[in-house]
Specification:
The protein is an alpha+beta fold and 255 residues long. It has a single domain, classed as Jelly Rolls. It has two helices and 15 strands. The strands form two sheets. Strands 1, 3, 4, 6, 11, 12, 13 and 15 form an eight-stranded antiparallel sheet that branches. The chain has a seven-stranded antiparallel sheet with strand order 2-5-14-7-8-9-10, with no helix packed on it. The N terminus is likely disordered.
Length: 255
């Protein structure tokens, strides 16, 4: 009886998990409304950072006040991109100052692998960095656009990555360790150094960047586990352990 119940619960959980993946999948955020797509979440590391509409009906802006040299303001997907994907982000770096402004694929530093494409003020006007980090090493590339408004595009096909700036191919790479599902994060942060990420390199000037359009297409979006799912799984594991313990006690009494 217990085995039958356990089997049924496992089948139900497996079915629920498999139903999360929806292919093909798309997301398009124009940053023209009062709220963002429900599949996007906002986070700020301190009150020195802010995000919101410039004016009603207009585009959104990420900002950092002068003074702080650490932290970030971020928009992150509530799911992971699975399989091949294309991500496009159109932004305006006119008032970026010495900051970093762009998008990251993968988890937070230092939970590798990750890859990033972002404008970086100290590199020069409208210059940016393409950085990929994996256990044991990293690679760095660059790009440049002729205008402050630029569309950054990252394409993954298998373990191959292509990076475009305003339609021009800026870099290619092989992400042999980066083939699993990945979250996407749009960020504004202080200068992170040239080369290996350096959280102490930030400068104290004010940074701001305008968000115009964000588009994702992928083989599938795989949502992150919710707290309710994790609680259910923990309850099932506890129930299974309790059931086994009772069976062992019953067997001992019979013997």
């Amino acid at each position: 009886m217990i085995r039958t119940c356990i089997f049924g619960l496992l089948v139900a959980l497996s079915t629920a998990a498999s139903s999360f993946a929806i292919a093909p999948a798309t997301l398009s955020e124009s940053f023209s409304g009062a709220t963002l797509d429900s599949r996007l979440s906002i986070s700020t590391s301190s009150n020195a950072y802010s995000i919101g509409q410039l004016t009603a009906g207009s585009t959104w802006q990420m900002s950092k006040q002068a003074g702080t040299t650490t932290g970030a303001v971020e928009i992150q997907t509530n799911f992971k991109l699975s399989g091949n994907f294309t991500a496009e982000l159109t932004i305006d770096n006119t008032n970026l100052g010495t900051g970093d402004f762009g998008m990251r694929f993968g988890e937070y530093f230092f939970n590798y692998p990750i890859t990033e494409m972002f404008y970086q003020g100290p590199q020069g006007v409208n210059f940016g960095t393409i950085a990929s980090y994996a256990p044991g090493g990293y690679s760095i590339g660059g790009f440049n656009t002729s205008t402050h408004v630029g569309t950054l595009r990252v394409v993954r096909s298998g373990n191959q990555f292509q990076y475009f700036a305003n339609g021009h191919l800026a870099s290619t790479g092989t992400g042999s360790s980066f083939v699993g599902p990945a979250t996407v994060t749009i960020f504004l942060r202080p200068y992170s150094g040239s080369g290996a990420f350096d959280p102490t390199a930030g400068q104290s000037d004010a940074h701001s960047g305008v968000l115009d359009q964000f588009t994702l297409t992928a083989d599938a979006f795989v949502p992150e586990p919710t707290s309710a799912t994790l609680i259910l799984f923990a309850c099932v594991v506890t129930w299974m352990s309790t059931g086994r313990a009772r069976l062992r006690r019953a067997a001992a009494v019979c013997n």
